[in-house]
Sequence to fold (270 residues):
Amino acid sequence: EKLLSLFLYYNSYRESMRSWYSYFSVIFLAFFLFPSVYAQEDLSALEIVKKADEKVRGKTNHSVMEMEIIRPTWKRSISMKGWGRGLDFSMTYITAPARDKGQVFMKRKTEMWNWMPSIGRMIKIPASMMSQGWMGSDYTNDDILKESSIVVDYNHSVEKVEVIEGLECYKIEMIPKEDAAVTWSKVYKWITIDEFIQIRSEYYDEDDELVKSDFAYDFKKMDGRLIPSRIEIVPADEPGKKTVVYIREIHFDIDLPESYFSQQNMKRIR
Fold:
């Protein structure tokens, strides 16, 4: 009887330990092998958008870029250097082509300025020019001026999770707040779950017609961050037209005070 009791006790103990082992194995796999699922589970749509923006922008940055404007019958390339601080401050120095070299554009909160050394003039970009393409591209002055609007002027929600180009993404729907003075009636953004890389956006007008899309390609590690090195802006219903931005080099979180973004500095930077 004692041997039978001992045997039954041993079997019960072994089954119990198996159950606990299975339980802790599941917990280990969930939290240690797949931490991103739990780390991101509680993120709001707004937090996801902010993370994606900070990923490519940092607190501050300095970049070397090229932009190719493509039209059905011609192409134009522009080379530039850029400096940015958050969403409210940016400065761009044109390095090529020769006819545009030396031009500087600066965004300082709600204002945009253009320094044209060839005529020695500092020009404030007026509201009437906000819808025009920057340097003739598909990226408008309004897009540049209202970059922060994407964060502050919209209500964000995660519509669903879907796979784009083999990558699992949050599909974020953005609807303007009631009193927001914005161009778009609706914006969709696709942001990867694992790396918070924005790989696609769609912009709709007040008639809910798609106006343009942008796409991110060629992910590369730059200054320790995995980011897209090629971004294409494609107008809807205009075959043969697009603007391609190539990020050749970028450095994040450099010493770049707010005072750097001044009209005096626009005339000095190289």
Observations:
- The CA atoms of residues 179 and 190 lie 25 Å apart.
